[in-house]
């Protein structure tokens, strides 16, 4: 737990015919770009809709939802990040992706918080599935 920011993302309330529908909804790539912006700004821990994001977490499009750590979540997406609230806020406020999203009426709310609690990783009981593709290499010097 610690200080940080909260970002709430939601699809455009009204679909405008002058924009393609795909530009008025949030996609997994939007989430990945925002997560990367947070990491570059020094975020120490991040969650999406209460799901802790770790290095092996994926954000995958699943129809009108996004799968995070194999759990499906609909909009709105609530991203919480622990770190310096000023740096995190500035990074997201100036994010090119956030500017693009708001241009197409996607709702973006960013606020600083004195205390954020990020839950533990929900997939810890399934770690074998996350690392099963890794190969063990014997070191001759061991």
Structure description:
The protein has 142 residues and is of the alpha+beta class. The chain contains 4 helices and 8 strands, in the order βαββββββααβα. The protein has a 5-stranded antiparallel sheet with strand order 3-2-7-1-8. Strands 4-5-6 form a 3-stranded antiparallel sheet, with helices on one face. The mean pLDDT is 87.
Features:
three-stranded antiparallel sheet; 142 residues; 30% strand; alpha+beta; 4 helices; single chain
Specify the overall morphology.
globular
Largest sheet, in brief, is: 5 strands, antiparallel
Sequence of strands across the biggest β-sheet:
3-2-7-1-8
Contiguous uncertain segments of 5+ residues: none
How many β strands by DSSP?
Answer: 8
Element-level helix/strand string: EHEEEEEEHHEH
Report the β-strand fraction as a percent range. Answer: 25-35%
Q: Number of helix segments?
A: 4
Helicity range: 10-25%
Q: For the CA atoms, what is the radius of gyration? A: 17 Å
Distance between the termini: 39 Å
Q: In terms of structural class, how would the helical and strand content be classed?
A: alpha+beta
- Average pLDDT over all residues: 87
């Amino acid at each position: 737990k610690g200080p940080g920011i909260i970002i709430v993302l939601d699809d455009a309330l009204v679909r405008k015919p002058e924009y393609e529908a795909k530009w008025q909804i949030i996609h997994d790539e939007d989430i990945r770009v925002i997560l990367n912006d947070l990491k570059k700004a020094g975020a120490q821990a991040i969650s999406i809709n209460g799901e802790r994001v770790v290095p092996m977490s994926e954000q995958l499009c699943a129809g009108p939802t996004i799968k995070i750590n194999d759990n499906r979540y609909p909009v709105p997406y609530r991203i919480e990040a622990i770190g310096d609230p000023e740096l995190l806020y500035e990074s997201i406020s100036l994010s090119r992706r956030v500017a693009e999203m708001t241009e197409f009426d996607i709702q973006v709310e960013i606020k600083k918080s004195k205390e954020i609690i990020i839950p533990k990783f929900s997939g810890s009981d399934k770690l074998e599935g996350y690392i099963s593709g890794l190969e063990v290499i014997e070191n001759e010097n061991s």
